[in-house]
Structure formats: C-alpha cells, structure tokens
From TrEMBL, chains A, B, C:
Keywords: Membrane, Transmembrane, Transmembrane helix
Coiled coil location: none
Organism listed in the record: Marinicauda salina
One Pfam entry name: Sbt_1
Protein name in the entry: Sodium-dependent bicarbonate transport family permease
Segments traversing the membrane: 6-26, 38-57, 69-93, 105-123, 129-152, 172-190, 202-222, 234-259, 265-288, 295-317
Source taxonomy: Bacteria, Pseudomonadati, Pseudomonadota, Alphaproteobacteria, Maricaulales
From TrEMBL, chains D, E, F:
MF (Gene Ontology): enzyme regulator activity
UniProt xrefs under InterPro entries: N-reg_PII, N-reg_PII-like_a/b, N-reg_PII/ATP_PRibTrfase_C
GO BP terms, alphabetized: regulation of nitrogen utilization
Superkingdom of the organism of origin: Bacteria
Protein name: Nitrogen regulatory protein P-II
Amino acid sequence: MTDIFALAAANLTSPAVLFFALGVFAGVARSDLNVPEAVARGLALYLMLAIGFKGGVAVSQQGLTVELLLAALAGVVLSFAMPVIAFALLRAFTRLDRATAAASAAHYGSISVVTFVAGSEFLQMSGMVASGHMVAVLALMETPAILTGLMLAGRAADGPDARTRSELLREVLLNGSVVLLMGSFAIGWISGEPGMARLDPFVNGLFQGVLALFLLDMGLVAARRLSGARKLGFAGGVFGIVMPLIGAGLALATAALIAMSPADAAALMILAASASYIAVPAAMRIALPQADPSVYLTLSLAITFPFNLAVGIPLYAAAARLALGG
Amino acid sequence: MTDIFALAAANLTSPAVLFFALGVFAGVARSDLNVPEAVARGLALYLMLAIGFKGGVAVSQQGLTVELLLAALAGVVLSFAMPVIAFALLRAFTRLDRATAAASAAHYGSISVVTFVAGSEFLQMSGMVASGHMVAVLALMETPAILTGLMLAGRAADGPDARTRSELLREVLLNGSVVLLMGSFAIGWISGEPGMARLDPFVNGLFQGVLALFLLDMGLVAARRLSGARKLGFAGGVFGIVMPLIGAGLALATAALIAMSPADAAALMILAASASYIAVPAAMRIALPQADPSVYLTLSLAITFPFNLAVGIPLYAAAARLALGG
Amino acid sequence: MTDIFALAAANLTSPAVLFFALGVFAGVARSDLNVPEAVARGLALYLMLAIGFKGGVAVSQQGLTVELLLAALAGVVLSFAMPVIAFALLRAFTRLDRATAAASAAHYGSISVVTFVAGSEFLQMSGMVASGHMVAVLALMETPAILTGLMLAGRAADGPDARTRSELLREVLLNGSVVLLMGSFAIGWISGEPGMARLDPFVNGLFQGVLALFLLDMGLVAARRLSGARKLGFAGGVFGIVMPLIGAGLALATAALIAMSPADAAALMILAASASYIAVPAAMRIALPQADPSVYLTLSLAITFPFNLAVGIPLYAAAARLALGG
Amino acid sequence: MRRRPGWRSEAEAMARPTRKKLVAIVESPHLARLLALLEEAGATGFTVLDGREGRGLEGEWRRNDVVGAVEKKVVIAITNAETAEAVLTAAEGFFARYPGIIYAHDVEVVRGERF
Amino acid sequence: MRRRPGWRSEAEAMARPTRKKLVAIVESPHLARLLALLEEAGATGFTVLDGREGRGLEGEWRRNDVVGAVEKKVVIAITNAETAEAVLTAAEGFFARYPGIIYAHDVEVVRGERF
Amino acid sequence: MRRRPGWRSEAEAMARPTRKKLVAIVESPHLARLLALLEEAGATGFTVLDGREGRGLEGEWRRNDVVGAVEKKVVIAITNAETAEAVLTAAEGFFARYPGIIYAHDVEVVRGERF
Ligand SMILES: Nc1ncnc2c1ncn2[C@@H]1O[C@H](COP(=O)(O)O)[C@@H](O)[C@H]1O
Ligand SMILES: Nc1ncnc2c1ncn2[C@@H]1O[C@H](COP(=O)(O)O)[C@@H](O)[C@H]1O
Ligand SMILES: Nc1ncnc2c1ncn2[C@@H]1O[C@H](COP(=O)(O)O)[C@@H](O)[C@H]1O
Ligand code: NA
Ligand code: NA
Ligand code: NA
C-alpha cells in the first residue's frame, strides 16, 4: 500500500509528467513557448515507430501465443462496447446533442498512443513489464469505436453517402497511426533481435527524452483546449474523469476473465481508460461534421489525458496488482 | 554462394528495407500516413552530416592516399560518362523526347545519397568496410553528370542564357548536398578522433534508426511516384532496372582497372548504379524546364531506388567479392 | 600560457566551430544549403531543455546555496546595467538614431543561449566545469535588459500604451526560452539523479551533435545577416567586438567581488559577452518598432556571435583562470 | 523545343482575358472532397496552401496542434466563368455541411486559354 | 440534424452577395494586435497564413531564420463593407507604426449573411 | 520619433487609391528569376508563401516530397498599374518556358504612395 503511494509520487515527479505540467503552465500563462507542428508530428512518428518495433521484437521471442489472440479480442470488444456506455452517460447527464455525444463517445472506445507510451514507462519503472503484444492490441483498438460512434449517431437525413463511406473505411483500416504501429510491430517481429541490435540506441536510448519533449507539447495543447471546458459544463467535466475509470474497470474485469498477467491487465486498463485524439477526431470530422469538435477535443485532451497521466496510470497499475496478484 | 543468398535474405529482412516496404505499402494503399517535409529534410541533413563526418574521420587516420585520388578520378569520369550510355539507350528504346531523355540520363550519372548510406550499412553488415574516402567520391559524383546531360540535350533555340548559366554553375558546384557532404567530410578529417569522441552517439548511435525513418518516407514518395510509371511504358521501366546494372558493371571494370579493394569497388558500384533525386532534378528544372519531371522522378524514385535497395546492393557486393577476391 | 593557445586552437578545430564555419561558407557562397525553420526551432528547444535539465540535476546534488543567489543577483544586475554602457558607446561613436541604439544596447544586456551552450562545452573540455546553477543565471539574464533598453529609448510621443505594456510584460516574464530553461531547470532539480538516469542518452548523448547541426544553421543565418553590415559602418562593426569584451570584463570584476570559482566566472563572462537573438528582438519589435532590426540583428548574429564562438570563449576562460587562479 | 501548352506570341498577348479566381478555406479532412468538386466542375488546376490559424463560426483553431483534424487549408483555383458558377453552386451544399468559406472575384490572366 | 448557421436552400442561393476581402501582411510580434483590431471592427472570422520570405521598405526577411521576430504572417478576412471600412481606417495608424501592408477588394460570396 | 515612409494624417487617408495585386505561382527553382523580373519591372515589395500541393498542366505535386524541385511558391506583389503591366508582359515569356500561372486584379490600398 505504501508502495503504491510511493509509486504514485514517483510518477508525479518523473520528468515526463513534469514536462507535461510545464507545458500546461506555459499554455495557461500564455507564454509564447511553442513546438512547431512538424516537430511535434516527427516526435509522434518516432514514438509510434519505437513502441511498435519494441513490441514486435518482444513478440519475436515468444511467438504467436493464445495470450496475444485473447488480448486482441478483448481489446477489440472493449473498443466496440465502451462508446455505448459513454453515449448513454453523456445523453443522461449532459445536454450535448446526439451527434456530439456520439462523436465524443467514440473517442473513449478508441485509445491514446501517448497515454499508452507513458503508461508503459510507468509500468516498467514499477517492475510490471507488459507483453510486447499489447502494442498490437493498442493498434487494433484505435478504430473499431468509430463504427460504434456512427451507429449511435443514428441514420441522419444526410447520413454517409458512398464517398464518405469509402473515406471512412480507409480511415478505419488504414489510418496513419494504425499502419505505422502495426507495420513497426511487424518489422520488429520479422527482424527480431538482430534488428534490435541495430536500432537499440534509437528506439530505446532516446525514448524517454522524446516522450518528455512530446509531453511538453501535449501540455501546451491541453492548456489551449481548456478554454473549451466551459462549454462542457460540470457534468461534462465529471464525465471526462469518470469515463476512464469505468473503462479501466471494464478492462480489469475482462482481463480477469481471460486470466491476463497483472502487467498486461494494467496495460489493457490504460488503453481502455484513454481517449483518442488523432484517429477518431479525423473520422468524426468526415462522418459527423455537425458534431462540435471543441467538445470532444476538450474532453480528450484537456480532461481525460491529464487525469490519466497524473492519476489514472498509477491507479490502474495498483488496481491490477491488487486484483490479479503479483 | 550460400553466403551470398544468406546476405541477400538478411538485407530483405533488415529494418531499413522493411521500413521502406512499409512506406510503399502505406502509399499504395493510400493511407494518410505521412512524414512532414521539414522532418524529412532534417533527417536527410542528418544522414549527410553523419556519413560525411564519419568518412572524414576515417580518412584522418589514413591520410591522403593515392587510392583516394584514383577513386575520386574514377567517380568523376563515371559521372561524366554514364549519361551518354543512358541517353543512347533511352533514345533507342523509348519514345521520350530529346530533352526528357537527356534530363533522365543525367540522373544516372549522378548518385543517390540514401542508396549509398543504405549500401554502406549493408557492406558493413557483410564485413566489407569501404574506405572513408568513398564519401568524398560520393560528393564529387553528384553533379558532373549535369553538364553531360545538358550537352546531350543539345543547343536548343532557347539554350541557357547568362543568368541560367550562373544559376546552374552554382547548382553544380555549391549544391546544398555537395556542400554539406564535403564540408562534413572536411570537418571529420580536421577534427579526427577527438571530434569523433564528441559526436559518436549522434553520428553512430542514431544512424540506423534515422535511416529507417527516412526510408519509410522514401517508400511513401516512391509509391506516390508509381502513378507516373504508365507514362514510361514497358521499355522505360526496364531501363530503370537495366541502367543501374550497366552502371555497376562499368564501375566494377573501373575498380578492377585501378585495383580497388572489393569493399571500395562495391561502394563505387552502388554509387554508379544509383540515380539522383535531389541535385539533378533541381538543375534540370532550371536548365531544361521542357523536360518532363514526372519521367525522371518516377525512374529515379519509383524504379531504380527500390531496385537498388532490395536487390542491387547485395548483388553488387557479391559481384565485387567474386570478381576482385576477398 | 601555451596551454591557453592549445585550447584556443582546439576550440577552432572542434566540430561545433567548424560546422558554424561551414554554415558561414555556404551562406556567403550562396549555396542552396538550408535547414528548415521547424528543424532549427526543434533543435533550439532541445538545447534549452537539455541544458536546463542538466543544470537542475547538478543543483539537486548541491542544494540551494549562497553561491547560486549571489550569481543570480550578479547576472541580473549585469543585465540591467550593460545596456547603459552599450547605449553610451553607440551614441558616441555611431550615427544610429536613439531608438535603434537603445534597442541594440538591450541585446547586449541579455544573453545568447547557444553561446552559453557552446561555451559550456568548451569549459568542460578545458576541465573547468561551471556550476549547474549558472543555467538559472542564464535564464534570469534573458530579459531584464529589455527594461533598460526601453528606458534608454525615452518616453516617445507614441510610447507604450496599456496593451503594449502588457504584451511586453509577458515577453519579459514568460518568454518561451525563459519558461523552457527555467522549467527544465526546475524539472532537473525535482527529478534529480533518477530523472537523469532516464534522460541521460537524450540530454547528454546527443548534445554535441545537435549543437553542431544547430551551429551549421547559425552560420547560414550569420552569413545572410552579413549583408546588413554595411549599414553599421566601421564604428558599428568595432562595437560588436568591443562590447563583448567590456561585458566580459565587467563580469570578471563582479565575479571577483563575489568570489566565484574560475569556471563560474568564465560562464558569467560568456553570458555577459553574448548578445540576445531571440527574446530581445521580439520585445523590441513590439515596443520599439521604429528601431531598425537589421542593425541589431546584424550586430548580434553576424558580428558578436561569431566573435564569441571563435575567439571570445577561450579568451574569457583564460582570463578567468589567470585572474582568479585555478 | 517543346512549347508549353498555351504559349502565344507577344503580339497576341496584349488583350488579357478575364477569368474567375475561386478561394475556398476548408478543413483538412474535407480537402479531397472539395478538390473532387472542383475537378467535377471542370477546373484545370488548383493550388493548396496550409493555414496557420483562424477563427470562424465554429471557434478557433491553430496548426500548432497535435490534432490535425481541425486544421484548415486554403484552395486557390483560376477557372473560366462557367466552371466558377458550377463550383459556387455546388459549394452551397458543401459549406452548409462542412466548416469553411468560399469566395470568388474576377482576375486578369495571361495565357487565358489554359483555364 | 444541426444546420450550420447561414444554411440556405438552393433557390435562395442564386443571387450571390458581395463582401470585402481584406488582406494584411504583418510581422509575427504584431499579429495579435492586428487580430484584435479586426475583432473590434466586427469581423466574424479570419485565417492566417505563414509567410516564407519577402521584401519591403524595411528590407528583406525570410522564415528560415533562427530569429522569429521579423517573420511575416498573411491575414485574410472576409467582412461586410462597414467592417472593412472600419478596419482600413484603423489600419492607417497601425501601418504607420508597424511594418506591413493592407489591401481590400470586392468578392462574391456564398452564405453572405455570415460575414 | 521616426515616421515610417508613407505615413499620413487621418484626414488625408480618406480617399483610398487603387493599385494592382499580382499573384504568381512558380516552381522553387525559378523563384529567384521571377523575383528578379519583379524587381526589374519596379516592384517595391513582395511576399512569398509556400504551396502545399497542386495540380496543373504538368500534373500533380505536393510539398511532402523528398524532392524539392517541383515544389511551388506563391508570390504576391502589390504594384502600381505601370509596373503591373510591365510584369505581366514579361511574364508571358516566363510562363511560356516555366510552369506556373500569373494573374492580376485591382485592390484598394492604404498608404498608396509606397507601391
Ligand atoms: N470571414 C472570414 N474570413 C476569413 N476566414 C474565415 C472567415 N470565416 C471563416 N473563416 C475561416 O474558415 C474556418 C472555418 O470557418 P467556420 O465554418 O465559420 O468555422 C475558420 O476557422 C477560418 O479559418
Ligand atoms: N508591395 C508589396 N507587395 C507584397 N508584399 C509587400 C509589399 N510591400 C511590403 N510587403 C510585405 O510586407 C513586409 C513588410 O513591409 P515593409 O513595412 O514595407 O517593410 C515585406 O517584407 C513584405 O513581406
Ligand atoms: N487554374 C489554376 N488555378 C490555381 N493554380 C493553378 C492553376 N493552374 C496551375 N496552377 C498551379 O501552378 C502549378 C503549375 O502549373 P502548370 O504549369 O499548369 O503545371 C500547378 O501545379 C498549380 O499549383
Ligand atoms: Na479508451
Ligand atoms: Na549513378
Ligand atoms: Na550579454
């Protein structure tokens, strides 16, 4: 128990979380500090490449296991299912219109790569090393929620025409981050240890530094998005904190059901609790342009992301350990 | 012999080649994966700085040798000469107009930095370490072919005026990649081992990771350029594969003539086989704007580059080893 | 003494200085070599993050000392005071108008982060390791000079209105580089050795390579700014070399007064001698738009910066050692 | 030497024709659709620029975001009057559904036959 | 379904109204001030683009500089005539003090009531 | 205080002069040449923007390429009528040889004497 508090405290004083806080501070204080968007995207590409590759190398040593298949199935089911709960909550407790509620709900079925990355670092620090294949689960969970979200939005008069459907399908199956994560995962798997010997200083040495710089930018972005919080109202704000807890709870139950290791369960909880900020917003702008983007972006970036980073991750890790032993 | 096949297979499963393939896949599937151009240029600058510097440090330990001078001479002669063959082939077997054929031919006399970089990595992996001074040969081979290309295009009615000539001369002598490669080479030479002690984690540690990320982008670019392949016709496509083989053959003969080591010979073959995609296109847009850029860019980026990366490099290395012993 | 010359020579053949020279050469020769601005800003962010963090980690081991407080006080006083001298010199010896002279003077009270970074590397190479807290002094010295500069410009008819004043205040207190330096310093201090264990390959391994690439760009920028040198006249050019010497002299005297170590004194001299090229220009464009930016940018980037990098830094280190022993 | 299409002697060049310049500001996810709309209406070319930041009915956006979904692009197309009319008509429906604006005005061009 | 403000049926769309396009080229440090000026004059939206390089009375600049202070931005705003007049009048003072230029011209718009 | 050239009192500002806005879309390797053409014709300033992607007679291009040679830039110059005429005339030859387009239209400016 004291151990848990020590880890939570260590999390709050880790460079990654502190750089995020610095970004928030700079943004709120309206400093002119900023990260050029090309640099931010370059850092994001790096993080996806590195995490995918490392996961693939890890799997190359274990081979294709039943655990992988079960975890993938669990992730996909969660991604499809969570938006239903989110939608029900939003419609019951907030005054968001149907489209905006459905679009927001879709974000919670999907995942946030940087939350997963920060979570993996925390787990490693706590001696809970998740399986490499959780990266594949990450990629698989990115987009199913989009479909649920659209179903929840209902068959509007101007529902997706043929062109929109094809654009959407590409977004779901071939979204850049899905392709890069899955591709890097496959490359890690194929090239295995010899591949890692070549890329090690790149994918491991730099990892935490790049994460820190990226989180600085995430802090700036979150701060800028905070101005949208007024629109959410109190209930909306609470949703942004409660929904990750529900997602994590569902994930823990699922993990128990399929007898995951505590570390893998914690990783699945982090994925379930996190909300998308890349793949889903893009899909929603295409399919549900009438939904208000400032609502879902504020929820995802300015409320749920900071909550998970600062509080959620250590909490989920502790819960997984308590519930599943280890 | 089995050794050669093993190395060719190892090449195909190396992270660099696999990331290129991932880029091609993403591009062909029209995923929205993309690398911001500022990031791609930053990676290219890094690769040139690192390869130049490493070459210079290597030379600082050997001093200025006859080998360097002979290799430089061989490279410059090849760069001047190869476009003549390329032009003759293109005029004989394709229906490209004179200007487009001449412009395309010039690309094959020049070199591709990233092909050389990938080739050097392959050679190193195969235990064939080329001399540091091959980097100087690389830089020297970049632009002489431009002059041959212009001669082949002939003295058109609106041939280069005084302003164009001066712009061209600057492009030939002071092209950014020539200056950076040569400059970094000189700096490596001057600062030697103590310099390397300072830059080692930067120029060596990151090298293969940056190359992988850059090749991902090259794959995206190659895929986008594939659409231009229809214009080339069958003969044009075949040229994009045969010409590198001819270039490599010429280079091997030249290397034998001046008694190069197998590793240096392989490096020279890679240079001869590769086609420019930076310095020559820019020069051709200035001097031969009537030549069709989609022809030469497709040839260089979508046909010759992938061929060299996947098949050519191990082939040239094997040929050099077979022909020159070692 | 011979030791000093050896170090000065080593400085001139260090990769950092040579890459700067390469940039100047490419710029003067009008090569098309260029570093995308997003990359340059990314490198600058990295350097500030790394130097701030390293300083903070160093301080986490010493704690808050009287030395820190004295050094900070000395830096702030110098930053306020130096513009007065610079202004007097510029008004006495050049024909610059009041606003331009005042704006230029402000640059010399402030500091240049990259000069400090290059200087720290030189000091380390010479076995003079400055205290970590000099980074805090760096950040504190960035903006006080802005206020002095504005006072020197005098109360013009269209002096700062309420809006300008608030914009300026934010620029002085929350300038991006101040926030990033101070923030990274604080994060280094808080996360200490465990934090450094995570970020080490990022903030230390890459440091000199990133610095080299950034200096290449600084060289290109300096060369482009050289065209503004004609406007300065002879007296202006001389000022750009004399003023850093005066600043360094003042800093040495101050350092002696408060009994700084030779290494810290050298660092303070470097700070005093350097001229701002980010925070102060931005503030001057806001508050003194009538001042001619090509004057102060040429002075800072094309004269004082190269002088300090090539000659000043070793000179100040030698002077600190001679005057303060060690 | 190959002459670029639309090349004319200097004498012909004197009377410069008038064409329409269309400018649309659209969100990145809808760019492909707007370009398709232009093409269907018969536009022979276009140029796209990156927006940096902006404000409209749906509030503010800026490119310095981790999120690309609300970024805006500026699309320029020079067309003949007929094509412009077709684009503007189609754009009514487009901009009723998607964020952004479109406007048009006359411009004097050289090599008018190419638009 | 939520209709975006300014939505009209196709029939209504035929007569396209005229509005003013304002374009200002300003230096980064003065951008916020220009945008405030636009807002005070009643503009309902704007779009900012990054400049790459340029030349004017104060000499040359280019974005590829380590120094952000002399970078220029291009600001586009479609407004009604009244707002345009107010902006141009206020801009006289602005551009007497700060570098840059401003100009205006008529454009045909769709959904005219939103400007 | 130094007044920027072209400064005028508010009373003088009322009658706003008309100038020409020229816009050229050119390929990066030819930018320097186009800017020289502008300068020779007497233009007092210009602003260059980066293109992101586009299509024309020579096919598609996009900035996200490793190859800079086919990137396009957008050049804006406000000039007086005479200079505009000279530029457009010279541009006939330029755009017969090089890819890209140019167009012009009237704009209302403040501080008209500076163009
Ligand atoms: N009046 C305007 N002038 C210039 N740009 C505008 C204007 N209105 C909207 N925009 C741009 O179009 C984007 C989308 O507009 P909206 O659909 O009104 O949110 C805005 O964020 C601006 O970038
Ligand atoms: N005539 C012009 N046409 C286009 N852009 C201009 C013009 N004059 C000035 N500019 C732009 O506005 C910036 C500032 O102008 P200035 O205040 O004249 O130095 C210049 O650097 C150009 O980018
Ligand atoms: N009608 C047009 N409207 C807008 N931009 C155009 C148009 N035609 C050509 N361009 C731009 O100019 C570039 C070169 O045109 P072209 O010489 O026709 O290949 C194109 O790639 C576009 O970026
Ligand atoms: Na989730
Ligand atoms: Na070649
Ligand atoms: Na100073």
